[in-house]
Design goal:
- This protein is mostly helical.
- It has one domain.
- The chain is built from 12 helices and no strands.
- The protein is globular.
- 36% of the residues are buried.
């Protein structure tokens, strides 16, 4: 089970549709909003500040490049937080941050390799790029939670995604669309709120200069949910591939049998 104690999990392992998984991720995020909020203050707020500072001094193109790197880095603590909230009873945000700092260099190396692979595959055509994004979707989870090397993380992610390639492909499309929607909704909705509700002059739109403060607020705001959703898709596909639902059912039967024996 690769280091994940499925018998202690706080969610029920069963095969779910992708929409059901996305809904579960949303409800899980709401239930644990306090922990997510603490981690966001420690990780996302400084990332947003750094991105805005670079955008105003070096230009929005440099800011987008930095925001991508910071999103890769912020992905680490949120992945660890979600995994611990699912499989552990006592979770402390500061311990998650410390653990993230120890693994950050490996994850950034993996992400650089992933970017290179994505660009190479996408250079041929859209479909190979989409396929590569799908089969490598869980490489971060594998590296962090299964203690895999970079090469094995890609191989293992490919094996997990192949359990339901259609779901993995759909997940890539949904996550990409959600990230874009977060940017656009924050920019358009934020400017409308500033102009109509606060009666102030709104800032220039995203498409005028290639970036905006509101756009980056949306970019970082959706990251916790996207990380949570990807982790739950990872769990769902591992459940299909490794029969976690059957394992937990047999464990429950065994526990009831032991309890009945003790009461006899």
């Amino acid at each position: 089970m690769s280091g994940l104690d499925v018998l202690r999990a706080r969610v029920t392992f069963r095969e779910r549709s992708l929409l059901d998984v996305l809904d579960l991720a949303l409800r899980f995020s709401v239930v644990h909003a306090r922990d997510f909020g603490k981690l966001a203050l420690l990780v996302l707020v400084p990332s947003l500040g750094a991105t805005i500072a670079v955008g105003r001094t070096q230009g929005w193109a440099a800011a987008w490049a930095l925001s991508l790197a910071l999103a890769f880095a912020a992905d680490v603590p949120f992945t660890l937080l979600v995994s611990r909230l699912v499989f552990e009873d006592d979770v402390r945000v500061r311990e998650v941050v410390r653990a993230s700092l120890r693994t950050l260099p490996r994850v950034l190396a993996l992400r650089l390799t992933w970017l290179a692979g994505l660009f190479i595959m996408a250079a041929f055509f859209f479909v190979p790029g989409l396929w590569f994004a799908a089969v490598s979707l869980f490489s971060t989870e594998v590296l962090l939670l299964e203690n895999a090397g970079i090469g094995h993380a890609f191989v293992r992610s490919h094996r997990i995604a192949s359990a339901s390639l259609a779901d993995a492909l759909f997940a890539v499309i949904v996550f990409s669309t959600a990230a874009l929607a977060g940017v656009l909704v924050a920019d358009v909705g934020g400017r409308m709120a500033i102009a109509d509700l606060l009666q102030f002059r709104p800032p220039a739109p995203l498409w005028a200069n290639g970036g905006s403060v509101l756009a980056f607020v949306g970019w970082f705001a959706v990251l916790p949910y996207l990380t949570t959703a990807r982790f739950f898709v990872y769990l769902n596909l591992r459940t299909r591939a490794e029969g976690w639902d059957i394992q937990t059912r047999f464990a429950a039967i065994a526990a009831r049998a032991e309890a009945a024996k003790g009461n006899a």
